[in-house]
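Input chain follows. Return structure tokens only.
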Amino acid sequence: KKATTMVIAVRTEYEAKLIQDQGVQVDGNTCKAEQYVASRPTDQCTNCQQFGHSYLRCKQPAICNIYAEPHTTTSHSC
């Protein structure tokens, strides 16, 4: 298997930052680590307006939630 997901709980923000910056050792290999962001199927992304993920993990282009045009909602002017 080439990839898998593992959740590691730490006690402090400092420990979390250290793991994110330096990675974590698993079976002698340094693995990339990133912050876990829980998402429910009903969560709506504030970037692309789709459901099931957070803007923190969004890889889609921005869509305005007012007119569904290809720009951020914050850059929208009435």
